[in-house]
Amino acid sequence: xxxxxxxxxxxxxxxxxxxxxxxxxxxxxxxxxxxxxxxxxxxxxxxxxxxxxxxxxxxxxxxxxxxxxxxxxxxxxxxxxxxxxxxxxxxxxxxxxxxxxxxxxxxxxxxxxxxxxxxxxxxxxxxxxxxxxxxxxxxxxxxxxxxxxxxxxxxxxxxxxxxxxxxxxxxxxxxxxxxxxxxxxxxxxxxxxxxxxxxxxxxxxxxxxxxxxxxxxxxxxxxxxxxxxxxxxxxxxxxxxxxxxxxxxxxxxxxxxxxxxxxxxxxxxxxxxxxxxxxxxxxxxxxxxxxxxxxxxxxxxxxxxxxxxxxxxxxxxxxxxxxxxxxxxxxxxxxxxxxxxxxxxxxxxxxxxxxxxxxxxxxxxxxxxxxxxxxxxxxxxxxxxxxxxxxxxxxxxxxxxxxxxxxxxxxxxxxxxxxxxxxxxxxxxxxxxxxxxxxxxxxxxxxxxxxxxxxxxxxxxxxxxxxxxxxxxxxxxxxxxxxxxxxxxxxxxxxxxxxxxxxxxxxxxxxxxxxxxxxxxxxxxxxxxxxxxxxxxxxxxxxxxxxxxxx
Length: 551
Prior knowledge:
This protein is α/β, with parallel strands linked by helices.
């Protein structure tokens, strides 16, 4: 049992904190006893929200997770609810201090002989899936990709919309027979058997986007590097590229980027340019035929045992709530520590959601060059946001605030828990690939899809995505595992949630026990034994970041 939580109404996240988190709804005038102190609540405190532990004057600093998260705007009383009216974002300044960081790695002896069954690439990388990938060099080809997707998914057994097609057919039949639509039975049960022709091909994926032309040449160059990263991804077995011909992002630039990133690239790569084709019909027909031949080729791949050090897990949060930093994020952070201790890679991104914990991360960097790269990326990103009248402090969404995340520093302090406690071995700019075992920081926005898009580009072969409010986000080439912060969400949105961290809130499991359960799930998902909900539903979200202001 978790002695810090069980049978308690509140929790303090760090010994230096001057706020407490409600674990359940607490009524006004309730006397809450915690650590030999009694707090009479001045307001109703809903679960996930916080209250102050002492009388404070305007300007007082508020500490949570052991870091500054804001300053009081007007005098508040002990037991008063924290709100956006009485607390505003504040964060400590940061800089390189030359701290010698000593990490106590968790005991991973129980996993010393554990493997996962993955797909080996000829360059030594190991994927957790085997996908065929369609890449358009320009948005003009999106319609052609949609036509190809419908044909291949329906005929080869990758479509997941059959239940909705049957429901629509039932509505049509009722309408044609003069019956009330209310008489149609709403049965959205999917087909019992999905007859996939290519058993060792986990999916056919499509990177529809809105770029490639019309923007700046720099935008096209960034997009090319991003698409090249996806072509080189360990979970991708082969690629079909569709190009118009006249766009900024030329096919040769994409090929150059693919080979610059990976000189050993040898996957099947088929290229079709519409302005060189006799007709759209010919373009689509030829690309389908050659892709079919490629599918036959990569279907010969078999899963084989691989050490856990070959895993790369990206950690992400979205639709966060006041329990994110209490349950799911720390549990995922323990997974991160386990994998780092086993020689694997962990990717922590979302730079706007590291605001306020920069010093902790800087102090964990293994050398000054890596720390300085992080500082430079954070400062330039924040300066860009301020130039257009924004800033990291504006990151929390209305949903975040409603469920207890009052300032960006508070949100960030809880979000950073996903990265665990290991040293930071590298800092990656957008589209750069992770090459070093250990924890790397990846520069992306906090935006769910832009962040997962960038995390997959850095090489994540699984993504652990924590959520307190619920989100259907997925990724085309990297299986996304949804981790709920609370049992209510896990039950309400069971169709998209894979793992429930509610037992941490109830005290049934410790952070370490929950983390080990998540890690076991990851091993099974990496082996294809468990298929995460986002993969089952083809939630293939892909949004390139154009390096503008996106929080």
